[in-house]
Amino acid sequence: MSVHQSANIKRITTHILQEMKQRGEKISMLTAYDYSMAGIVDAAGIDMILVGDSASNVMAGHETTLPITLDQMIYHAASVVRAVSRALVVVDIPFGSYQGNSSEALRSAIRIMKEAGAHAVKVEGGAEIKESVVRILSAGVPVMGHLGLTPQSIYKFGTYSVRAKEETEAQKLLDDAKILEDCGCFALVLEKIPASLAKRVSEAVRIPVIGIGAGPHVDGQVLVLHDMLGITQEFQPRFLRQYADLRGVMLDAVGKYIQDVKSRDFPNKGESY
Ligand code: KIV
Q1: Most buried residue, 3, 112, 150, 224, by most Cβ within 10 Å?
Q2: 222 CB within 6 A, ligand 1
Q3: CA separation (Å) from 252 to 196, 229, 246, 248, 259?
């Protein structure tokens, strides 16, 4: 049987992701924030789409993910969900909408599920947000955890450098992964940690582990769409593989259009009524 068995599946569910881990089929995940891009990513056969709070950087031009609001995340998520027929759509609960108050966490998750039609939510952190995770799960909302470099805590970390290189932080990350699994999370994202640690986590938990800058020994990979397509070019971390130069393609196309307008070549007779 092919390891790409999931290619024939009409709709990806958390249960199918679990089966993919069990049979060793790698899980593909990319971000998307709007209808047009999400439709293309889904048509290409991606397993999971993350409506990440990286929308704060990529779509809104903020320096961090902190400013994006719950209303803005719901707007992006609803646009993505309308375009998707196969992928599982996971939506980040933004900074300030779930930490420290499990009732607010539940309200935020329910708004994302009801108003955007999302299939799951993602939250950053381990033991410190356990109460919020349990509360969201109690409403039947699938939760994905996110450990390692958690961008919502950038002001605590101070830099975007690799996390958990020391054993104390590595052990806390392993403990947090077990806590999130025991709570009932359906999957985890591990961001920018040593590949050896990501391997230990993936082997220690039964749920799928999706890496970004976490090496090859995990159950799947996620990248920010605009980075891998070469639309954003100022962000070039070592873990990023760029699959296209869409910025170059767009600059070229827009440049040609400007030229055609200025030279009166566009529109021609066939393009007029
Ligand atoms: O917001 C995001 O895009 C993310 C990924 C980097 C995993 O959380």
Answers
A1: 112
A2: yes
A3: 42, 15, 10, 6, 11
Least confident of 26-30, 67-71, 229-233, 256-260: 229-233
Peptide bond into 267 cis (omega under 30): yes
| Nearest residue by C-alpha to atom 4 in ligand 1 | 52
Of all protein residues, the one whose alpha carbon is nearest to atom 5 of ligand 1 is 52
For residue 269, give both structure tokens: 């007779």
Only one residue has tokens 């690799």, namely: 162
Residue type, 114: K
Distances in whole angstroms, Cα of residue 22 to Cα of each of 14, 16, 25, 39, 219: 13, 10, 8, 28, 9
The amino acid present at 189, given as its one-letter code, is V
In angstroms, what CA-CA distances link 69 with 43, 129, 248?
A: 29, 19, 31
The letter for the amino acid at 51 is V
Q: Measure the CA–CA gap between 136 and 138, rounded to whole angstroms.
A: 5
- CA-based torsion, 26, 30, 35, 14: positive or negative: positive
pLDDT at 7 over 90: no
Contact 114, 77 (CB under 8 A): no
* Nearest-angstrom CA–CA distance, 22 and 68: 36
Contact 53 CB / ligand 1 (< 6 Å): yes
Is it the case that residue 20 has pLDDT exceeding 50?
yes
- Is the pTM above the cut of 0.85? yes
Backbone angles phi, psi at 266, to 5 degrees: -115, 135
Which tens digits make up the pLDDT trace of 161-207? 999 999 999 999 999 999 999 999 999 999 999 999 999 999 999 99
Q: Is 124 a catalytic residue?
A: no
